[in-house]
Structure formats: C-alpha cells, structure tokens
Design goal:
The protein has about 220 residues and is α+β, with helices and mostly antiparallel strands. The protein has seven helices and eleven strands.
C-alpha cells in the first residue's frame, strides 16, 4: 500500500527534511576551496608556544581583508592544522570553529605600544599566547625596547590600524579591551569566512611564504 502524504507522520517528514539539509551541508563543507604545498601547523602544543605558519596565515588573511597595518591573535583561536594538499571549507572550520568576527581599531603609536606590551608578555603554553604579523618587537625582560610596524619604527603620534578577533577585542584571555575605543570597528566578517576567502584567492598556498620570522626577539 502506498502512503499518501497526509498519512506520513510529522516527525518522519521533519527527519527527512533535516537529513536532506544535512546532506547538502556536508556536500558544501567538502568542496575544495584551495590547496597548500605543506602542512600549516595549528597543533596545540606547538602553536601555543611559538610563532607558526598557520598563525601567520590567519593574521595575513585578516590584514588583507581589512587593510590593517598589523594583526594580533591569541593562539587559542587556532584549533587544528590545515593539511597539505587540497583544503576544504570543513578544514577551515576545524581551525576556526568559534565564529568570532574580525575587528579593527585605529590607535596612536603610544596606545599601540601599551597594547603590544600586554600582548607580547602572554605566557607560553596558554591559549593567550600571541601570534603577530606586520610587527617586530625586540624585548629586554618584559619591556619592548624597539617596535617596528611594517618595517618602520613605531611613532608615538602616528595612527596604526590593528586587526584582531572579537574575542580578544572584548578583553578575552586578558588582552586589553579595545571594543570601547572610539575608532573600533567590528567588520561583521566571520574569521573562518575571511580565512576561506584568502585561501581561495591565494592558492596554491606556499608554506614558505608564511614561515616564522621571529616577530619577537628576546
């Protein structure tokens, strides 16, 4: 006997509908968006202790999207590697699963120095440990004695655009809160989507272009 639609239980209809959407979603997640010639490292015990090519890649993506001068992000915001070879959107979401938005703040060099002094002193082996791009910091003890932004010395009264994620912009992991700064902008772009777009536009990724550059010298 063939059941007419009215005789099919509502929960069965709903399950069928959800299954269809899940299958479509899985298919979209599995679409290849780009590729890399080597692994981009997000392994917890590594990324929370040293600069990595994946930290540099994510920061570069944020800077490219917002035309920022420098980027800072917490290593706890990186949750997995990106594989060598084909990269899918699912791979990106495994790296960036939290749905943070990309944010900018334009501040003076003096303000930026205060911010960086806190960021650069975040402890290793914690999610707060900072990844940087666009800046080089030379330290004596816990104090920056030389800061270069885009290869030029930091100037106290010059304006600089910093990009980060909404989590640390709101004070997460003990970072200076900047979402109440008059020049703060929440772009509304999700971190994973910005990273996906960058990978798509710059593939095949060459890991050597994002290799650690000793952003912090102690």
């Amino acid at each position: 006997r063939v059941l007419i639609e009215e005789e099919i239980p509502e929960d069965t209809k709903l399950l069928a509908l959800l299954t269809t959407f899940q299958e479509k979603g899985e298919a979209q997640l599995g679409v290849v968006i780009g590729s890399a010639d080597a692994r981009f490292i997000g392994e917890r015990k590594i990324v929370r202790n040293t600069e990595t090519n994946l930290g540099n890649l994510a920061c570069a993506a944020y800077m490219d999207k917002t035309r920022a001068d420098l980027a800072v992000m917490n290593s706890g915001g990186i949750r997995d590697d990106l594989p060598a070879g084909d990269i899918t959107y699912k791979d990106v979401l495994k790296v960036k699963p939290f749905g943070n938005s990309v944010c900018t703040v334009t501040m003076t060099g003096a303000e930026l120095l205060e911010y960086l002094t806190v960021a650069v002193n975040k402890e290793k082996d914690t999610g707060a440990f900072a990844q940087f791009v666009g800046v080089k910091i030379t330290m004596t003890g816990d104090k920056p004695i030389d800061v270069q932004v885009q290869g030029k010395p930091l100037v106290a009264d010059q304006q600089y655009k910093l990009v980060s994620e909404s989590y640390i912009a709101s004070g997460g992991d003990g970072y200076p809160k900047v979402n109440d700064h008059p020049n703060f902008v929440d772009t509304g772009y999700l971190d994973a989507d910005v990273l996906r777009e960058y990978i798509a536009n710059n593939s095949p990724l060459k890991a050597a272009n994002y290799a650690p550059t000793n952003d912090v010298v102690r």
